[in-house]
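[Q] Does anyone have a clean structure-token version of this?
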Amino acid sequence: MEFHLPGHIRTLKDFLVHLAIVTLGILIALGLEQLVETHHRTKVAREAVAAFRRELRDNRTAVVAMMTAMPQLREQIKQQIALLAAPATDSKQPLHLRYADIHFELVSTASWDTAIATQALNDIPPEEAKRYSAAYGVFKVFLEEERSGLTSWQELLRFGTDASLLSAEQRTRAIEQLNVYAGFTYVVELIGGGTLRTCDEALQ
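[A] Here you go.
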């Protein structure tokens, strides 16, 4: 790039005037660029917060649905335990096991993960970002507990659907696994209550 000095610079004063004009122009250009960048970052941060709030409300609905299903799920487990605990008979008739339902309400962290990737969190007030971080943290814990429940439910399936084919030892193990699954329902309610409180604090 070529740089040409104006031809009419003859004195130190002329030079200093032109230098001041060039410097001022550069500073104005840099200031405008910074202003545009700040506006863009502020817009991205606002959009991220709006996405957090939508996603957290959806997650909250999923947790409530999961917790609401737990009492009925426990009742189903209780019925299957009673069936397995009944004295075995010599009847060749099938004794159908109706396994308790599986409930898995997915919660999402996509908006939070995107905000981290785009560094939008840098432009959100620290206290506000901390509340959202806590909410997403407890949702992740809740999701892990859901996965634990899914594993417990899958373990039940290996006993088949006909209790009349199970030995006494197999029935005992099936009852133990059903009790593990019942325990999962109580943990979901416990963790779910804390999850909802933390979510509500973030959304206030």
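[Q] Thanks! Anything notable?
[A] The chain has four helices and no strands.
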